[in-house]
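> example.struct
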């Protein structure tokens, strides 16, 4: 019996100089290193989601995220505003759906998901029912 299909990704590459990106420099300048941690915590959550986006449309989800990051909701709102302003998350998607996603995440995940899809197709061809 095949194992259940994976949702999202369990691993993703992280550039060793991500803190030097000009967008990230703006976040660190305006929010401190906590803004950096805020961003990467949310990116990790996004990668685990099957649709590569994180729904933050309800207050309970935001409260859980704040508790996990040990920040107040006011800090969450401020960090979110800054990360959206500097394009670390897609603002249009957040504005229309209250979901966080990232072009960088989608681009990096596509390569892994395409490879996973190809492997499944090859397996299905070599193991007919």
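> example.seq
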């Amino acid at each position: 019996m095949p194992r259940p299909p994976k949702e999202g990704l369990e691993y993703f590459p992280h550039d060793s100089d991500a803190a030097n990106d000009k967008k990230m420099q703006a976040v660190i300048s305006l929010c401190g290193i906590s803004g950096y941690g805020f961003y990467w915590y949310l990116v990790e959550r996004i990668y685990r989601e099957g649709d590569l986006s994180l729904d933050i449309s309800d207050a309970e989800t935001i409260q859980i995220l704040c508790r996990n990051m040990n920040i107040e909701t006011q800090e969450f709102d401020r960090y979110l505003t800054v990360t959206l302003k500097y394009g670390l998350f897609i603002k249009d998607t957040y504005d229309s759906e209250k979901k966080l996603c990232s072009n960088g995440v989608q681009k990096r995940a596509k390569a892994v998901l395409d490879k996973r899809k190809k492997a499944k197709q090859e397996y299905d061809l070599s193991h007919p029912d």
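> remarks
The CA atoms of residues 60 and 75 lie 16 Å apart.
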